[in-house]
Structure formats: structure tokens, C-alpha cells
Amino acid sequence: MEFKEMTISKFIEDLSGDKSSPGGGSTAALVSALASSLNDMVYSFTVDKKLFQNLTEENKSKMLKFQAETKEFTKNALTFMEKDRADFMAVMDCYRLSNGTEEEKNIRKEKLKYATIKAMNTPLELAEKSLVYYDNIKFAITFGNKNLKSDGIVAAILLNGAIESAIINVLINYKSLKSYEEFKNIPERCNEISMKSRVLKEEICSGFYNEI
User: Is the pTM of this model over 0.85?
Assistant: First the structure.
């Protein structure tokens, strides 16, 4: 069964149990989907309502575009839950390969390397795509229904949590790859994404706090 087909209680039960999956990677993807879904609620209470009619034609067009992108983002975030599970299981399968002879050891090492690269790149892609999504949240908060502004704020907070969580999963896989020259920029890239996410989240939150 795919994660998206599970009940909330079943997912939490599996997450808290002794199963190898779901874990932190799938949870990061789920949180990202929750962030975009919450932001989509802002659009749902705005589009085709009185406030929407009062927007300029340019902002009406932008809002419809951002809402469509939000739905696509949510859909993609859910697929990342499955990608993470598949990547993790592929890594585990590599550890089960025979390594008695030198040839077997080399084959196992090579397969493990590429499985780990994939397991690292999946959360990195999630983090990068999520970082771009802040622009969508900013627009919803600025032009959407003001009664749902706090929901947009929560979406930003969740998005930051998803990004930080995804980065942790990038780095845990990077530990097995850091001896390879081609991946030396990964920590710097992760730090850059995390810092940008925190700044964007704080920008959104500070505006709300200043209004209280």
C-alpha cells in the first residue's frame, strides 16, 4: 500500500513501530505536502470569491497559476514519500549482497554507491523544490483571504520543517559518499538551502508577529 492511501492513524502506527519504513525521509515529504495543502486552502477561500474579483487581472491570473502549481506540488510531494521508501529499500538490499570474494565486494560496493547517491538526491530534490515554493506561500498570504493568513504562516513553518528534515536525510547519505570528489559540494549546498529557508520563513513569520 502506498503511503498516501494509508489512514493517518495507520501511517503514525507504522512510523512509531519497528518497521524500517516510513522514516524521516518520507515524513519530510509528507510535511511538505501538508504545507502546500494548507496554502491551497487559502486559495480555496479566495478564488471566485468577492476578494478575488477585486484583484487586478494580473493578480487574478497569478493566483490561478499559483493554485495550479500548488496542487501539482502537493501531488509531487506525495510521490517523494514513495521515492524515499524505494531508495531506502534499495540501499538495504545492497547491504544484503554477498561480499565473500573480492569480485563480490567490488560489485557490492559499486551498487551500494549508486543506491546511496539516489537516496541522497531524492531528499535534496525535495528540499530544492520546497525552497522555491516559498514564493507561492508569500503570494497567498499577500493577496489571499486575510482570515486565513495564519494558515499561510503555518504553511511556511511546516515548509521550513520539511526542508530541514530533508537536508538531514541528504547529509546522512552523504556521510557514505564524502570520500568521492564529485560530492564535496553537498554540505555547502545543504547549508545554503537551510539558511535561505530559515530567512524566508522568518520573513513571513515576522510580518505576522509585528501585527499582533
Answer: yes
